Amino acid sequence: MSILHFLGLGKEAAGDPDKRSAASGETETVRKITAALDRMEPERARFVAAFAYILCRVARADLHISSTETQAMERIVMEHGGLPEEQAILVVQMAKTQSNLFGGTENFLVTREFNKIATHEQKLALLNCLFALASDEMISTKEDNEISRVCKELQLTHDEFVSVRMGYREHRAVFKKLPRPTG
């Protein structure tokens, strides 16, 4: 079953489930997270699942998700997903697991689907959340590069990327290494 089908965005979304599965090659990533959110409206659950997965994508840019990053993701999912703490914890844990297992193959697919279901304002809000997440510690070059890739996949402009990134300038590792001017 494809992620397109799972997200309800495949061309055959109204057709036979078996045909949809074969035609779209759905992944398990967002489906597993969405199943944990079965009380939510399906479209909203898909949005939250993809949102949480993309947060994990950036947190895992250095191949490790710290406890600080996990707590920040839980807080962000609670705030932007409108979830109670228990659900936010579950969503983040499932997204982390899926990211660890399938990150290399799912990153682009999930982000592409988020691009299709999110408004421009929601994409900008996610971009801001990605920088906020990375800035809980120090925004590494790897995290900055991953956020840039996500931004491109969300079809946001470079100017939008730079504008949001400027708000987190003091947290970027590249500026921490610069010598302080004397005088």
Key structural traits:
TerB-like; 69% helix
Shape category: globular
List SSEs in N-to-C order: HHHHHHHHHH
Q: Approximately how much beta-strand content do the residues carry?
A: under 5%
The main pleated sheet reads as: none
Radius of gyration: 17 Å
Report helical residue fraction: 55-70%
Measured distance between first and last alpha carbons: 63 Å
Q: List the uncertain runs.
A: 1-7, 9-25
Q: With helices defined by DSSP (H or I, 4 residues minimum), what is the helix count?
A: 10
Textual characterization of the structure:
This protein has 183 residues and is mainly alpha-helical. The protein has one domain: TerB-like. It is built from ten helices and no strands. It has helices at residues 3-6, 17-24, 29-35, 42-59, 67-81, 85-117, 120-134, 141-153, 158-166, 173-176. Helix 4 (42-59) packs across helix 6 (85-117) and helix 4 (42-59) packs antiparallel against helix 8 (141-153).
In short:
With 183 residues, the chain is mainly alpha-helical.
Question: How is the topology of this model organized?
Answer:
Layout: H1 3-6, H2 17-24, H3 29-35, H4 42-59, H5 67-81, H6 85-117, H7 120-134, H8 141-153, H9 158-166, H10 173-176
Helix pairs in contact: 3-4, 3-6, 4-5, 4-6, 4-7, 4-8, 5-6, 5-7, 7-8, 7-9
